[in-house]
């Protein structure tokens, strides 16, 4: 059995792996692309075929791999009759759709993308029907919502496509969220998330007081997915998708997921009055309403969409009846509906493709022009109408039979009558499809001259049409065993009810109902013209308008909440943050006393005192001068330099290096930004508010100072000891700071460079958005020419920076290389190189300097993260955890022995990310300058003496 | 250490301190920015220069090895100090001195702070779109 288990896994992941192929293979041509999309499907089908005999014999194949056992989540799959039926449908129809789409898609459509989405969807769907763990099932469930979003919105250029996709995602996605809740409750009741356990615990579930909430939440998921009333409205809008998608998602697979779930959960949930009234009633209403709307739709695909809604309602109703026989009938109808509905969708696609219209009122008479399509479409539509000798008839008869003896709230007539009405309407719209499209006179005003499509396009529907007829004539022989094994899986073991798949059941109530439905349907069609006028005159609720209004209301509600909480006043956020921090500190400190002081105060040397006075003076100056921004910035620079000196004095050269370079870069960028901002900060808040903020700031500052003071007076054992002890032995470096950054806390650093890179990219993106808005207009109207020297790029500065460039780069390289053992490292090196570059940009202007270098800063950030990540993952190759570092000593004469650590490659990533981020920020700022009318100089310096001499010569 | 070297080093340090003080005092004493520009030049040239020579001597004679740090510091100082002064002067002129207050440049083109640079041929390397 082991082989079979493995096979099940492979089936489940084949579409996902296959999804990688078409996107690449499209370069080899459309036919190759389609072949590579079909290959995984064929493979999966073949593997399914290998497993089939076992399942048909009544066995259940299981496979399990623990994934997150703590959460009860395991990647476990199982294949029983129901799973086999659905997996076969998903893969089989998927294959036909892939062939069909090859001919349907026009050369302008990105076919590789289409097949990739399709295979992703196929994988997700397959996952749903094979999952043996409800959490896993939920993941696949949401995956179908996502991948169907991509498929429905495949024609991104069409607003209907985008809106339809969004609506489908919103409805099915929120249903999925509800279902997560329901499934978690279910798992809690049973104590296991394994589907097999849950199915076996039906009695416990139904007896639980949590049964009803779980049922409602799960049904919400199923109803939204299967487009049950009142959530049916998304399905017609999803018809904006390319027809292969409609045929696949909306006939065979996605909308059947809800039905599948109800069938799967049938043993656990069905059989109670709540189940009957919720599910059967919803199904019944959906069936009738869907059929009624379908009758009056002029768009071929809309007609089919509503008929699908109606048939899904029928299936839901059957499952809702809660009797075993009804469940088996539902299984049978799933097969039948799949065959005729997929055929009809593909037929509609062919008609659309050939005539360039789907409007029934613009069609007619196609019988003579498209004979093959006519035959295919008619057979399928007759089956949908429930005409004998076609498979739709069989399941419809059985459905009516079931309905005829169902009692709804004491009434013996409600269900049979409504079921007959549904069947009657179904006959009417099916015949409308045949008569209004294929019959009637040949017209001369088709948008395009219709004729039958190439073989590839009608092959798929033709195959399904053959199935329609064969099942219709010989049901028991063709699908009998499959229905039996799938039905058995649905009802969860136990005795199978007696049923027989045959055309003639004798004179039964169902036969009368059928006859009424067919005659009534034909009469209705005969009166279609006046009825259609009446229908169009009646006011109807417009689902899309209501949905849009609801979405708009939700959006404005969330905007109100967001805007109330996020006023955009940073002083407010900061005050909340500071007050909360101080309060937390006080709460933590209250009730406990400090340990005794263990350290003595050190004497204050004169140098330190002077530094301290300078620092305090600078801080005080910032306080008094902060409204004049340039002066405040100068003072901030002084503070930064004093702190760096402090680090030097306290023997922290690494921190000093970092502080100085960060300080330089920050001040440079701030100066650039300040150029485009007001030079003075206006007084905006009231005096009371300022006093309040001042008090809060004081409290925060005093709190931090007190805490630092308390800590410095006491010996506390810190993690530093460990780092100091292990830096050389464990990380191979004597510079503990660098070893901490690239080794001990490499994960943090990895996260930080990503954050830094993202920040750089966000600044770039925000600037991009800013410069497309009103800010750009304001900038264009600004005039900086008055307060500016004409000599923007002075000769001395240009020459000096050119000289400094190689020195700075050399220093950067040196700092980088020695980083592991002595002060330095990738971060500082990145900053030094960026300062070297910043100087060039400052000296000769951004555009001039940018035109002379070939580096892409976006890419540099990306490469930095990639290199750091790859260095980390390289550890996996040696069986070590992510980011484990290694080092070794090498000796190549004549160079002295040196050390190479894998951490150095990681440091290279840090270096690149830092450099890229800083330069990208500069780039963003310089873009503002261009909008503010900064012109591009063509010379490196404005007054080039050599150039001037030549110009003077020319003048002479 | 020979006494003579010790004396030289000490003398250099004293000179350095003196000129540093003079430079700083000048910053306060002198009237406007253009005059004040002159004061720190004393501190940066003779002042810091003397310290560097003293340090060089000390390293060579006392520690017994030649140090290049001082040379590098000198290089950077000579590179940055004039540029800083140049920028301060330019900024001051742009802000506070009107064009007619300065004498004529005596050339075909005016002073760089006030007049646009002479036009020249477009640069092929710069992005042609801009």
Q: Order of helices and strands of chain B, N to C?
A: HHHH
Helix proportion range of chain B: 55-70%
Characterize the quaternary organization of these chains.
heterodimer
Largest sheet of chain A: 2 strands, antiparallel
Based on CA atoms alone, the radius of gyration of chain A comes out at 37 Å
> What proportion of the residues of chain B form beta strands (DSSP E)?
under 5%
- Tally of alpha and pi helices of chain A: 42
Mean pLDDT reading of chain A: 85
Q: What is the number of E strands of chain A?
A: 4
Low-confidence stretches of chain A: none
Contiguous low-pLDDT stretches of chain B (5 residues minimum) are: 121-130
**Which two protein chains have the largest interface (Cβ within 8 Å of the partner's Cβ), and how many residues from each?**
A-B, 27 and 28 residues
Number of strands of chain B: 0
Helix content of chain A: over 70%
Note the topology.
The complex is a heterodimer of chains A (956) and B (130).
Chain A: H1 2-18, H2 20-25, H3 30-56, E1 61-68, E2 73-79, H4 81-104, H5 111-130, H6 134-152, H7 159-190, H8 195-200, H9 202-207, H10 211-225, H11 234-237, H12 243-252, H13 254-264, H14 266-269, H15 273-295, H16 300-321, H17 324-355, H18 366-369, H19 371-385, H20 391-404, H21 414-438, H22 455-473, H23 475-478, H24 480-491, H25 509-526, H26 528-537, H27 543-565, H28 570-589, H29 606-625, H30 629-649, H31 653-675, H32 687-712, H33 720-731, H34 736-744, H35 746-770, H36 774-781, H37 795-818, H38 826-844, H39 846-850, H40 857-877, E3 887-890, E4 898-901, H41 902-931, H42 945-955
Helix pairs in contact in A: 1-3, 1-5, 3-4, 3-5, 4-5, 4-12, 4-17, 4-22, 4-24, 5-6, 6-7, 7-10, 10-13, 12-17, 13-16, 15-16, 15-21, 16-17, 16-21, 17-19, 17-20, 17-22, 17-24, 19-21, 19-22, 20-21, 20-22, 20-25, 21-25, 28-32, 29-30, 30-31, 31-38, 31-41, 33-34, 34-35, 35-40, 35-41, 37-38, 38-41, ...
Chain B: H1 3-29, H2 33-36, H3 38-63, H4 69-96
